[in-house]
Amino acid sequence: MQTEPQLQEVLHALANRHRLMIIRWLADPKAHFPIQRDGDLTEDGVCVSFITDKTGLSQPTVTTHMQVLAKAGLVIPTRIKNWVYYRLNDAVAEQFLGELGALLRRS
User: Fold this and answer.
1) Carries keyword DNA-binding (predicted)?
2) In CATH, what class is 4-98?
């Protein structure tokens, strides 16, 4: 997150309660999702169908939320067979937290 627009994009992605909830779940997928038939929860991510079930939102709505999170760099999508799996991008999350902390200390 080297630029102000990148920081703003992450803040925008986190400004939605559903996306923020999904990020919380992806931070600890084993605590929030069942074991999957395909893909490891931590290595490959969580299948979008499990995220859809847990949110109670429609699949297209969840897909849109996940695209916003991916565009901000907060999640990494991986295609396995016919499904997309998402995992938290720990590096971007850590960088964002560091930059946000530095920004707040300067203000």
Assistant:
1) yes
2) mainly alpha
